[in-house]
Amino acid sequence: MSQSFVHVHLVALRYFAETVRAGSMRQASEVLSTAPSAVNRQILKLEEQLQVRLFDRVSGGVKLTSAGEVLYGYIRNLERNLELAIDRIDDMRALRRGHVRIACEDGIGRDFMTAELAAFAAEHLGVTYSLSIHGAQQILDLVSAGEVDIGLTMGPPMRSDIRLVGSVPIPMGVVMPPDHALAGREQMTLVDLVGERMILGSPGYGGGSEIARHVTEASRHRPFVESNSSDNILCLVLAGMGLAVRSPVGLLAELSREALAFVPLAGRGVPVVKLCLWTHSTRTPSIAGSVLTERFLRALEPFAETLARWRAPAS
Hints:
Domain HTH lysR-type: 13-65
Number of helices: 11
Order of helices and strands: HHHHEEHEHEHEEEEHEHEHEEH
Number of strands: 12
InterPro entries: HTH-type_LysR_regulators (IPR050950), LysR_HTH_N (IPR000847), LysR_subst-bd (IPR005119), WH-like_DNA-bd_sf (IPR036388), WH_DNA-bd_sf (IPR036390)
Protein name: Transcriptional regulator, LysR family
Strand order of the largest sheet: 4-3-5-12-6
Pfam family, one: HTH_1
Family: Belongs to the LysR transcriptional regulatory family.
Radius of gyration: 25 Å
Structural class: alpha/beta
Helix content: 40-55%
């Protein structure tokens, strides 16, 4: 460890990090409830100690130098590690406190994650949460970068650089308005979709690339609409703009009240899609994050069983 770093005060590092996040010393001072001059003094002291310029002063604020970017990266790691230490030290084994960051796809959030999280939260009143909705590829990137503790996606896509805690296969089928001519079928094949207007998930949407590839190969035409949101695909189908090949996850409320019809896909070429639970491969999770991950893992198989009614009949 260099001698200059030994004397760097945590207050100066905090003032520096808040200035980066706020974009100016004035706005950082408001967050820190101190004077802009105090922020400026701490940063000047930090630059003097490290013998390097951390910011370029620009119109309306500041901009990180290359050295500043390096320092900020290490501070973010320090903040995460400090949060983890506090989680473990501050009576976390009783789960009276803690924070868990979760990212999932919109349909998974609606039909799987919310019920499990609500039950967990009722048992552990002091734990707080950050929830974000993204496409599958972005969720995997967030898990890999350590920006979230738990990721829930439809796979593919799959990744080898993060930990797949568990997965269950999910039935695939064709979603359509209940009055569509195909809605009464017991099952159908991809070839049956020839001539139909298709609404498909775009790359990055969980299972989207695999579904689109199979459908377009079987149907010999491009999708009528392509979307990166399962919620948007649902709305388009409800509006009668076309049919969608997808899982029933995210549609359970609409299917239960028969606002939509779901016909299982059967035959060769049906894409295999799984509901996947992801965590970082090496980072030690907080106690709260670890316990919630275990709860999600235990819930995967029972949830898959509730979807059995939408599987194609055994041949």
